[in-house]
Amino acid sequence: SRSQEIIYDMPGAYFAWFADTYMNALKNIVPSLIEGWKRRGWKEGIHFVTDKAPPDSWKKPYRSPLSYKHTISLPNGCFFNTVSADQISSAAGNSYQHVFADEVKNIAQKEYKKLSPAIRGGKEIFSHSPFFQGRTLTTDMPIIGDNENDWVLDYEKQMDPIQIEKIIQLGFVLNEIKADIYKAVQKNATPSELNLLQKNYTRWLLRWTKARYNSTLFYIATSFVNADYLGLDWFKDQLADGIEDFKTSILSLKSSIKKGEKFYTHLGEHHFYKDGNLQSYQDRFMIYDDIKFTSEMLKYVKRDKPLEIGIDFGDMTSMVVGQTQGNYLYVLKNFWVLAPGSSKELVESFTDYFSTHKTKYIEMYYDRAGNQYSQIKRDWASEIAGFLKDKGWTVQLMSRNQATIYQEEEYRFMQGFLGEYDKNIPKIRIDNFNCMQLKSSLELSKTKVSVNKKGQRTIEKDKSSERLPLEKRPMYSTNFSDAFKYLVCRYEWMNILKKRKTTWSTPQTY
Question: Is the peptide bond before 340 cis (omega within 30 degrees of 0)?
């Protein structure tokens, strides 16, 4: 409804829909916008067209577009372009009178700032509108970590409550005048009476519009705004999942993790890359296409080289896929399956995504429990390797009979590994968007101090998040961090940092 209001207020304007990734914009965000328009009565071909030039009878934007691919055009000349943080070049050369962005917690502030210079142009045409050079930003409450994108919360400081109160009061006056006009029409008022009411409306409309210039409205809503619809039992169920999650997802309270509480203390922004998706692959699709995500879209994959995967088993089985290239280990993609989903489903997700990969050879690192479950006739590691073999892949099991990686060992190894202390160990680089769940898991993992059987204090990973409801675990639990642990806590790398030898068995190949 807000986008429609802005469209009507600035005919001929350029707008940008900004998303974290271009594929997410095409597959989710823009189609959701269009679905919302349709629910409000708009019809494609009458009120808007996508991916093509509009009919000749429609008004044109204030400047001619270079391309109509991945765009929306409207009869009054308004024009929407798709822009993303992973392909910020898609905004190059354009000027936008207003920017829309949804789920901005997934967009880094520095990427958003790169778009800001493009919010310009058309002052002589559009400066009448309070929406001119404005932004409409929405998101769930960010779960704040070192690299979490909570910059949108800073807009609260820009809001002038007195100005907003004045705007609301003027709006109430306008509503009263509208009601008076409606009553007058119903009573067959004379033209002179209606004219006076219309002049009064115009006068207050100008006052209301003027008050809205250079204003910022920052608003936090809780799920209780839908209490009548959701019912008390729904809130009780949500609270049963844990007070911390309830505070952020339901009450929209700010959450934070202090630096000293973090398990991965040396994890930083430099460990993530944001240019991992190829624009050339995304250009194959139109807005309404059934978009297929495959490894062909990955910039940093070497298709003729083996892949390395780390797996954590359980009622949520997590998989992270990497590839060592010289001095770097690139983590390219993450996958997961939730109970009652099967290992076969996880394998199918992986093999579908990497179906065009040329060298079908995998080094698999995993939780030693994947072997131990063979005692109850459920050897998860061999099971997954078998499914991969059926799909034409060769798997080398790298964790047969390996020693337990204790959490304190992991903690100390990760300090050196993420701190990049030794040039003999590859540096880690993780795809910011294709490994979004892994990124969140690493950033949200906290430490806890326990006392072992010898009475010694030890540092452990707080695994309480693994009691969350299954559907919330991919983003908010430590499960993915464990899959990452198995991928990188390799005996040869751990030995380099420990400066001592460890006994490991020969890997087994399937």
Answer: yes
Q: How is residue 299 written in tokens?
A: 């910039």
Task: Name the strand (E) or helix (H) holding 149.
Answer: none
CB of 466 closer than 8 Å to CB of 478: yes
CA nearest neighbour of 137 among 120, 151, 117: 151
Structure tokens at 54: 């509009």
DSSP H helices in 153-226? 161-186, 191-212
Give the C-alpha separation, 481 to 485, whole Å.
Answer: 6
How is the chain split among helix, strand and coil, in percent rounded to 5? 45, 20, 40
Backbone phi, psi, residue 292, to 5°:
-105, 125
Entry field: residues in the chain: 510
Residues 6+ apart with CB under 8 A from 260: none
Residue in the block written with tokens 């409205």: 217
Phi, psi of 500 (to 5 degrees): -150, 165
Parts of the chain with a pLDDT under 50: 146-147, 373-376, 500-506
Residues whose CB is less than 8 angstroms from the CB of residue 162 and which lie 6 or more positions away in sequence, other chains included:
none
Local structure of 341: helix, strand or coil: coil
What is the C-alpha to C-alpha distance for residues 243 and 238, in angstroms, rounded to an integer?
9
C-alpha–C-alpha distance, residues 91 and 80, integer Å: 11
What's the confidence (pLDDT) of residue 375?
Answer: 45
